[in-house]
């Protein structure tokens, strides 16, 4: 958004290693568009889920807590399933998967 300083999100530190993944997700969600509201929503949600996967992989790599790493692994599995369902919706509606 205009006027917002996102530079702090880009900085990685031990407490927040997610900045680059968040910015990448945001950029991809903002550019995801379709021919109508349903297709646009579907494409934005795919990017949102991909962002969740990217952040979950960072948590799997960096989190010291085993429960957090396990939840992150489960999140990856769930988000991949959700992406597959969204891709199927695109195909069923004659749209190009992404």
Automatic annotation (TrEMBL):
Segments of this protein annotated with the region Disordered: 1-23
Gene3D superfamilies: 1.20.1260.10
Pfam families hit by this protein: DUF305
Sequence intervals crossing the membrane: none
DUF305 domain segment(s): 5-90
Species annotation: hydrothermal vent metagenome
Protein name: Putative exported protein
InterPro entries referenced in this protein's UniProt entry, alphabetically: DUF305_CopM-like, Ferritin-like
């Amino acid at each position: 958004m205009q006027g917002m300083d996102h530079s702090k999100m880009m900085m990685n530190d031990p407490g927040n290693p997610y900045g680059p993944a968040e910015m990448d997700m945001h950029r991809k969600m903002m550019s995801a568009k379709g021919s109508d509201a349903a297709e646009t929503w579907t494409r934005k949600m795919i990017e949102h889920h991909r962002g969740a996967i990217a952040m979950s992989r960072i948590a799997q790599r960096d989190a010291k807590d085993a429960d957090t790493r396990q939840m992150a692994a489960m999140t990856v599995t769930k988000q991949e399933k959700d992406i597959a369902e969204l891709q199927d919706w695109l195909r069923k509606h004659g749209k190009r998967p992404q």
